[in-house]
Amino acid sequence: MAEISASMVVKLRKMTGQGMMDCKSALQEADGNIEQAIEILRKKGLATLQKRAERETTEGIVVVVEGDKWISLATLCCETDFVARSSDFTAAVDALKEYLGRCEADSGVEALLETEINGKKFSEVITETVSKTGEKMAVGDYARFRLSGAGLVGTYVHFNGKVGTIVEIEASDDNVAAADVLKQAAADIAMHITAAKPLALDKDGIEPQIIEKEKAIYAEQVKNKPANIIDKIVEGKMRKFYEENCLLDQKFVKDDSKTVQQVLSDAAKQAGGKAKIKRFVRFEVG
Questions:
Q1: What CATH number did the domain enclosing 159 receive?
Q2: Is residue 90, in this structure, part of any structural domain at all?
Q3: Range of the domain at 179
Q4: Which residues on neighbouring strands pair with residue 34, listed in sequence order?
Q5: Judgement on whether residues 90 and 130 belong to the same structural domain of the protein
Q6: Which residue blocks in the chain are alpha helix, DSSP H?
Q7: Sign of the dihedral through C-alpha 63, 267, 272, 281
Q8: How far apart are the C-alpha atoms of 6 and 3, rounded to whole Å?
């Protein structure tokens, strides 16, 4: 067996960021071969991921990266707040920002994990970090919005870093899109989404099974009422449900005398044109 010198251990530690004892053990198993030792450490990370596959990743952070005519949002999750505050996790977050800039997919966590920079996939970055922290780590969500035509994207990340939103707004022309009043409205609406948790943009975006479930619950609540008024009562309750869960119909959190739709329309009018919300995503860690 090859003699494992202190300098070899230090070299492997600098290359991988692993602990001294882990590096020494890997070098001993690899009979002094650096490349094999690196592979052993990577397998250790994979083994840890598999071992902890069922563990919940309720800590982490929302990451937003903006480029030319695009903006990406993702969550990087781990098991404990202790690891979420560690330098290893911070390094993984910094790497994620680079990979978000490179990933071309509009959505899909797997697409982000398979994105490569200098021959290394982001999934490998996660594996390497797991081998250092001993905790499960995962990308929880990922989305990229690309602007085409006149428009802008509003973003908001809550102060705790665990909830974030991006919302895309179409404008009638570039001047309207560039107006400060519309930019402020976009940012405010993103903040509203983060706080109010809308299910969809409007009622057409709510899944039919959710609507049917709500109707059934309301019908059960008033089943002892006269048959000729049950439908009207259920219809009224569904209107309230839409007002509470559809973004455009929700009362704006900063001014409940207006709906989100009215806030956007007013801002666009001040900017000299029109605007509408095209789509949004809201991601939350935990």
A1: 3.30.479.20
A2: yes
A3: 150-206+246-286
A4: none
A5: yes
A6: 6-16, 20-29, 34-51, 81-84, 87-102, 109-114, 122-133, 174-178, 180-196, 208-221, 227-245, 260-270
A7: positive
A8: 10
Q: Please tell me the distance from the alpha carbon of residue 239 to that of residue 258, in angstroms, as a whole number.
A: 17
Average of per-residue pLDDT values in the chain = 90
Please compute, for residue 277, the number of CA atoms within 13 A of its CA located in the half-sphere on the CB side: 28
pLDDT in tens, 132-155: 888 889 999 999 999 999 999 999
Query: Hey, what are 221's tokens?
Result: 């609540």
Average the pLDDT over 54-70 and give the result: 91
What is the number of other CB atoms lying within 10 angstroms of the CB of residue 161? 15
| CB distance 163 to 197 below 8 Å | no
Give the count of beta carbons closer than 10 Å to the beta carbon of residue 164: 25
Indicate the length of the chain as a whole number.
Answer: 286
At residue 141, what is the residue type? D
When divided into structural domains, the chain yields a total of 3
Amino acid making up residue 144: R
Residues 157 and 125 in one domain: no
Across 10-24, 27-41, 115-129, the highest mean pLDDT is recorded for 115-129
- Per-residue pLDDT band for 62 (boundaries 50, 70, 90) equals very high
For the record, the structure tokens of 65 come out as 């990266």
Contact 198, 250 (CB under 8 A): yes
| pLDDT score at 32 | 83
Residue 27 is assigned to a structural domain of this protein: yes
- My answer on whether 35 and 95 are in the same domain is no
What's residue 200's pLDDT?
97
- Dihedral pair phi/psi, residue 183, rounded to 5°: -60, -40
Both tokens assigned to 266: 């007013």
What is the distance between the alpha carbons of residues 142 and 109, in angstroms, rounded to a whole number?
Answer: 6
21 or 259, higher pLDDT: 259
Distance (Å, whole) CA 76 – CA 88 = 13
Token pair 């665990």: residue: 162
Is residue 281 within 8 Å of residue 166, measured between CB atoms?
A: yes
